[in-house]
Write a structure and sequence with these properties.
alpha+beta, 6-stranded antiparallel β-sheet, binds zinc ion, single chain
C-alpha cells in the first residue's frame, strides 16, 4: 500500500471501482471550487448565533472580529470565509497548525506560485546561496526566477522540459500538518455533521501532541495521500468532502480532499464516534483526484502515502520536486533585475525564465 505508483489501463478500472464504491456508500457533502469571480463565499452561514464551531463559545466571551479563512490564505484562498471561528481559535490554529503545513510545503509555495497574504513567498536555502522567486500578475501568468550556486539544487531536463529541485523542507511537525488538514475539513463540514466530531475537535485544539488519551486512537488515521503532478497544467483550488451513509461499509466516515495547482491531499478525518471498524491499512479508499478525473497523463502523476504520526519537529527532510515548464532562458543578467522587480519591469522580462504561460 505504501510507496509510489504509476498509471496504466488497470488504473482506469481501479478508478471506476472506487467511484462506484463512493457512489454506493457515500454522500458528497461539499465540493467548493475557487473560481475567478471575486466574491466572498461564506461557509456555514446559517450559524446565526455566532457560536465558534471549535470551542463552542459565543459572544461576548469570545470575539469574531478577525476574518477567518476556511482554507488558509497561503494556499491561494481569497474567498472562502468562515464566520463561525472565533478570534482565539483563529490565532491558535494559525500559530500551531497552519505554520506547520506552510513549512511542510516549503519550496512548493514558491514554485507553484501560491499567492498568500504577502504575495508569493521567496524561497532561500539555509546558506542563502540559492533563491527562487515567483512572479504572477495579469500581464504575466507565471514566471519563476532561480539563482543558484550549487548545481545540484536545480537540474534542467531540456528535452522533456522539466526542472527538478533538490532541497529540504522547512522544519515541521508531521502530526500538526495532519491536524491542520483536519481543521480545514471541519471548517467546511456542514453544521449538522459537526456533532460526531467532538473528540476530533478536542484533539486539534490540544496544544500538546503527546496527550495519550487521543494519540493512540488518532494515529490510526494520520496517513496523508499526496499527489503531485509534474506537468505545467494547473488546477484551481478545489475541495471535496465525502460522508459515509452506509454504516456497514468499512471505509472512514469522512474523507476530505484538498487540491491546489499541482498538488492534492487526501485525509481520513478522525471520527471516533462513527469509525468503530475502520482500519486505515485495510479500509482506506484512495479517491481519484481532479488530475485523474481530468485525464492528466498518468506518467506525470506521483501518488505517495505519507506517514504523519511523528509528534516532534523534523528539522531537515530532503525534498525532490519536478515540474514542467513551457519556456526557459538562462541569463544571469536578468536575475539581478528580478530580485528587485518593480511592476514596470515585468513587461520587459516577459520572455525570460518562464513557467505556466
Ligand atoms: Zn473558538
Amino acid at each position: 500500500m505504501f510507496g509510489l505508483r504509476k498509471g496504466g489501463k488497470r488504473e482506469i478500472k481501479k478508478i471506476e471501482r472506487v467511484l462506484k464504491n463512493l457512489d454506493d456508500n457515500y454522500e458528497c457533502v461539499f465540493d467548493y471550487c475557487h473560481s475567478d469571480e471575486r466574491q466572498n463565499i461564506i461557509i456555514n452561514e446559517k450559524n446565526n448565533e455566532k457560536r465558534c464551531r471549535f470551542c463552542r463559545k459565543t459572544e461576548p466571551e469570545v470575539k469574531f472580529s478577525k476574518k477567518a479563512h476556511a482554507i488558509p490564505e497561503f494556499l491561494g484562498n481569497k474567498k472562502f470565509v468562515l464566520k463561525s471561528e472565533c478570534d482565539n481559535c483563529n490565532e491558535f490554529f494559525g500559530k500551531n497548525l497552519e505554520n506547520n503545513l506552510s513549512n511542510y510545503l516549503g519550496i512548493c509555495r514558491t514554485i507553484l506560485m501560491l499567492n498568500g497574504k504577502n504575495g508569493i513567498p521567496e524561497f532561500k536555502t539555509k546558506d542563502k546561496k540559492e533563491r527562487v522567486k515567483g512572479i504572477k500578475n495579469q500581464e504575466l501568468q507565471g514566471l519563476i526566477a532561480i539563482k543558484q550556486e550549487n548545481k545540484n539544487f536545480m537540474q534542467i531536463d531540456e528535452q522533456n522540459k522539466v526542472l527538478t529541485f533538490n532541497t529540504e523542507r522547512e522544519p515541521y511537525i508531521p502530526i500538526s500538518v495532519y491536524k491542520c488538514l483536519v481543521k480545514i475539513a471541519l471548517s467546511l463540514l456542514p453544521d449538522s455533521e459537526l456533532k460526531y466530531f467532538n473528540q476530533t475537535i478536542k484533539w486539534i485544539r490540544n496544544k500538546s501532541n503527546i496527550d495519550l488519551v487521543y494519540y493512540n486512537k488518532m494515529i490510526n488515521y494520520t496517513f496523508l495521500v499526496e499527489r503531485f503532478v509534474s506537468s505545467n497544467k494547473f488546477i484551481n483550488l478545489r475541495t471535496r468532502g465525502y460522508i459515509r451513509r452506509n454504516d456497514k461499509f468499512k471505509g472512514a466516515y469522512f474523507y476530505f480532499i484538498l487540491e491546489f495547482l499541482n498538488m492534492s491531499f487526501q485525509i481520513s478525518v478522525p471520527c471516533l464516534n462513527k469509525d468503530m471498524n475502520f482500519n486505515i491499512n485495510k479500509n482506506i479508499i484512495i479517491i481519484p483526484s481532479s488530475y485523474e478525473l481530468g485525464g492528466i497523463e498518468n506518467t506525470n502523476l506521483t501518488v505517495s502515502i505519507q506517514d504523519m504520526r511523528k509528534i516532534y519537529k523534523i528539522i531537515s527532510q530532503r525534498l525532490s520536486l519536478s515540474i514542467g515548464y513551457s519556456e526557459l532562458e538562462k541569463n544571469t543578467k536578468v536575475d539581478d533585475r528580478i530580485w528587485n522587480l518593480k511592476d514596470n519591469l515585468i513587461k520587459k522580462i516577459k520572455k525570460d525564465l518562464k513557467i505556466n504561460s
